[in-house]
Amino acid sequence: MFDWYKKWNEKKPSFKQGGEQLGKKLKLDKFIRRIDWYIIKKFLGTYFFSIALIISIAVVFDINENIDKFINNKAPVEAIIFDYYMNFIPYFSNLFSPLFVFIAVIFFTSKLAENSEIIAMMSNGMSFRRLLRPYMISAALIAVMTYGLGAYVIPKGNVKRVNFENTYKRKKKAEFVRNVQVEVDSGVIAYIERYENYNKTAYRFSLDKFVDRKLVSHLTARTATYDSTQVHKWTLKNYMIRELDGLHETITKGERLDSIIPMEPQDFLISKGQQQTMTSAELDEYIAKQKRRGFANIKEFQIEYHQRIAMSFAAFILTIIGASLSTRKVKGGMGLHLGVGLALSFSYILFQTVSATFAVNGSTPPVIAVWIPNLLYSFIAVYLYRKAPR
User: Fold this and answer.
1) Considering only CA atoms, which of 203, 252, 253 is closest in space to residue 225?
2) 372 lies in a domain?
3) pLDDT tens figures, 131-155
4) What residue numbers bound the domain in which 201 lies?
5) 229 and 321 share a domain?
6) 50-96: per-residue pLDDT in tens?
7) Which residues are 190's β-sheet partners?
8) E-assigned strands of 228-325?
């Protein structure tokens, strides 16, 4: 008869559990109040709205600019939509996330200031530092989302986008490479005179093995063909192996030899935009492997790896700058704030592009080059924070 009561009594929280839950709720309410939720919703809502607005305009301009290339190169409509634009939108939305953050902060904060909402908050005892709390929470959410998408999700979609661009847009897909020398293992050096990607074949291939800086084996082959169905499998044709043991030499010849060589075409056949198709974990592994092998053309990969972190951190810096600029109510409304904000955000992106170019073409380390804009704008953020209304 009283089974229902016993079951309900077992499921209902105890007085202690209820007190703990209430305590947690009170702590959360104390840290994030109703005004904080109001600002967070305004921030994130304006951020996603600005993304939708600006990216839709960017897509229209991109179609207008590339429609002739798509037609002349006979790009299928299905590939244009699903391989290119469906991956174009998330890639550039994430790439220009700092710009959207800046626009969102400037726009809705100026609106709050114009409506005297900022004045009302501060007249009730809220400091500017306290006002920044919901801004920084929103910036943290955007930074985590930006890094997660850029490091692990978007690169998988970029594979189709980059292949489409190299096939139908740029027509500059890497199909061959000359004079490749790479260390495939400790003390093992491979040399390729020419590699053709269409048939996965390396011509005039040689493989030298050194022990204590002494040549102990020298392999030459007329061709070496990569088997894409198996990892590191190469088929050598018309090969000759010279085994050296002091003054003694052993020669082995043959028509065909299947061999495992720890080398893949993508290690030396680098196409434009290849770094965008790798997750951060894959980039880190690729950079470490290429450094061991002595490759020098990996700066673009290093820039991409460090830029994903720096771009995420930029959300905090640009949020502080935007909030510090737009919390003051000025004559003329938000037009001045938007103008200054857009100038600063575009200068940030321009400066970031220039510093990355110096890293690729100069001697600036990539990690320093991608963080220079953040460091410079951090000083601007500190200055504007101190000048903000209290």
Assistant:
1) 203
2) yes
3) 899 999 999 999 999 999 999 999 9
4) 176-264
5) no
6) 999 989 999 999 999 999 888 888 889 999 999 999 999 999 999 88
7) 182, 207
8) 233-245, 248-260
